[in-house]
Amino acid sequence: MSEKTNHELDRLFYPRHIAYVGASPKKGKRWSSGNAYMSGAFHQDFQGDIYPVHPTAKNILGYKAYPGLSDIPGEIDLAVFTIPTRAALKVMEECVAKQVKFVHLLTAGFSETGQSEHSEIEDRIVEIAEKGGVRIIGPNCMGIYCPEGGIAWNDQFPTQSGNVGFFSQSGQLASHFIMQGPQRDIFFNKVVSFGNARGVQASEFLEYFAQDSRINMIGAYLEGLRDGRAFFESAKRITPQKPVVIWKGGQTEGGSRATLSHTAAIAGSQQIWEAMCRQTGIISVHSMQEALSTFAALRMVPLPKGPGVAILGGAGGGSVTMTDMAEKEGLKVPQLTEKSIQALGEFIPLQGNSVKNPLDAFFEEEDQFIRLARILRDDPQIDAMIYNLEFTWMFRELGRSGVIKYLQKVIKGKEELKKPLLVAQEHMGDTALEVFNQEVAEWFHEKHIPTCSSFEIAARVLNNLSEYQVYLAGVNERGKGD
């Protein structure tokens, strides 16, 4: 643990002693066995004590195994259950006797099944834990990922720690966020998958991440809230200090039904959810790509001062559809000032180009993109820029070195713009360009230019930043009036 704090959840994310109940002497690291979690700890270089628990095994993955929790000689900060539903009752009683601090219940088959018998077992387990002072993560969840704490639920996750805290009711989506984040130069400091949320609640994770100096941004995937009022009260206090980005599942009638069978969550009205987000400053997103790109933009660029956006890379019908997309998302695509149009006309030929917004131009000379950036910087109508960069044709015309040389102009121009620049990095499905496409994205990220997988995502992300800026400005105004 890199710095000392005194929060109760520290021992969950930075455990010193872990028991894996359900570890197996059989070969393999199936996700549903304790061995996957042990392998995750090895990969993350866990520095504490590891105690595999199995009724008959002597050794598991090189560690001495114990028949029960009571046989373990030392303390246990975290017990990971990967055991059948019915067996969890007895083991939870052992946890109480052993004074285990946290229990992660991977075990599924509880209230999310909709069967009263299984719900009753879940209720009984929760009752035993609460009376005995044991905090539950889950049930029906993948648990904890914290590179600094040396824990993960598999051995495929990055060992690099980042500045994002993330809590999710879906283990699968949490895994996808962790694995896809690096493609946007996003790494996570702490992630928790907490499933049915019968123990530690979403608001507690939100509060914990808010006070953690390692975490600058907070994200979540939620299907429903057991502690709705507490959650929104916390969010209202936290969003002025740290952005909170949430993807809400169960947005439709069918999706809402699905949440019941997934995490036993009651999803609630989407309209109410959106209204609460606006009131509390939560950035509401609707996909993983939008969430990851929003994190990247928050990290890489300043918040726009308004909704006015200049679009570069639109031609003909593309200009019309991109304008529609941007304005449907809440942005404005204003006409440039007469001064800007005249200045652009000095070096952008009228034939084959357009100096209206959206702009359609290809810059032959090295300083032309820089001149464009300066003009947009000084245009009061423009608060940000989206470059719709579809370089399949460019690659065919200029080759790899030519494309790189052109993109160097873009990076130089970004330094002059002094306003947010997002790149919609689209290509027309050419598999030969897939690797180069990712290389270009990584290059942009190094220069603090966020990339998005489509223009539509870029417009949503920029609007997310614009609305967050409006919210923060309102908070500041209210603060002055107090």
Notes on the structure:
- The structure is a single chain.
- The protein folds into 3 domains: 10-140, NAD(P)-binding Rossmann-like Domain (Rossmann fold, 3-Layer(aba) Sandwich), CATH 3.40.50.720; 160-300, Succinyl-CoA synthetase domains (Rossmann fold); 309-472, Succinyl-CoA synthetase domains (Rossmann fold, 3-Layer(aba) Sandwich).
- Mean pLDDT is 89; it is low at 254-267.
- It has 482 residues and is α/β, with parallel strands linked by helices.
- 48% of the residues are buried.
- The protein starts with 9 loop residues before the first helix and ends with a helix.
- The protein has helices at residues 10-13, 34-43, 85-98, 116-132, 171-180, 202-211, 228-238, 253-263, 270-280, 288-300, 317-328, 338-345, 368-378, 392-417, 434-446, 455-481; strands at 17-21, 49-53, 59-60, 63-64, 78-81, 102-105, 135-137, 143-145, 164-168, 188-193, 217-222, 244-248, 283-285, 309-312, 384-390, 421-426, 451-452.
- The chain is built from 16 helices and 17 strands.
- It is 43% helix and 15% strand.
- The strands form 4 sheets. A 6-stranded mixed β-sheet has the order 8-10-9-11-12-13, sandwiched between helices. The protein has a 5-stranded parallel β-sheet with strand order 2-1-5-6-7, with helices on both faces. The chain has a 4-stranded parallel β-sheet with strand order 14-15-16-17.
Summary?
It contains 16 helices and 17 strands. The strands form four sheets. It has a six-stranded mixed sheet, sandwiched between helices. A five-stranded parallel sheet has the order 2-1-5-6-7, sandwiched between helices. Strands 14-15-16-17 form a four-stranded parallel sheet.
